[in-house]
Design a protein that fits this description.
- With about 200 residues, the chain is mainly β.
- About 5% of the residues lie in helices and about 65% in strands.
- Strands 1, 2, 3, 4, 5, 6, 7, 8, 9, 10 and 11 form an 11-stranded mixed sheet that branches.
- The longest helix has 7 residues.
Length: about 200
């Protein structure tokens, strides 16, 4: 693992989909579930979580139960009929059952910009930058985390070349958008990404 890279996330919210079996690795069973975390505005972000049966009793993870989770935001490729889709999930390293949800949502990353930053403006002239950040972890693996920055952070990010090591703090968010195909058919998708509150370059 690159000593300069790190990936730490913590959320607190309510279970919005009960765990379903994902896979088994060396006798350890992993499950996926969804956690709803409210923003200050009252809108909820849905965060996918991967949890092992070794850190908690899976049977207690039922709808509406408030939980606090710490871990790493990881990516993997899911092969679909005609393409490969990047999937994101918070890999739980610690899980606690909370008496009430405090709606914590915080992530800090350090990794490398691995694709050219896409800078754009909305019709309302709001500046946005889309980044893909590669965060190295053990066993020669990397997580590829989509990040979105706004305003002055977007302008700053737009000047950064591929290969720049950056530190990012923000929150995990889900966002719905509509995609129109060549037949003008509209399909609703959900994007999962890190909303950037702070970004800085790191010199090593």
């Amino acid at each position: 693992m690159n000593e300069h890279c790190f990936n730490r996330a913590e959320i607190s919210g309510k279970i919005s989909s009960e765990p379903s079996f994902s896979h088994n690795l060396f006798g350890e069973s992993f499950y996926t579930m969804a956690i709803d975390v409210k923003r200050l505005s009252g809108i909820s972000d849905t965060v996918s979580v991967t949890v092992s049966d070794r850190i908690c009793d899976i049977a207690q993870l039922t709808l509406g139960v408030p939980v606090y989770i710490k871990g790493e935001y990881r990516s993997y490729n899911r092969h679909e009929a005609s393409h490969t889709r990047l999937m994101l999930s918070l890999f739980a390293k610690e899980l606690e059952f909370a008496k009430q949800s405090e709606d914590v949502n915080f992530i800090t990353l350090c990794g490398y910009i691995c694709k050219p930053v896409q800078f754009r403006q909305t019709p309302q002239k709001r500046e946005i930058a889309d980044m893909l950040v590669a965060v190295n972890r053990r066993f020669n693996k990397s997580d590829y985390i989509p990040c979105i920055a706004w305003g002055r952070n977007a302008r700053f990010a737009s000047q950064l070349p591929v290969g720049t090591l950056v530190g990012i703090t923000g929150r995990i968010q889900s966002r719905q958008y509509v995609k129109v195909d060549e037949n003008q058919k509209e399909t609703l998708f959900t994007a999962f990404e890190v909303s950037v509150a702070k970004i800085e370059t790191i010199v090593i």
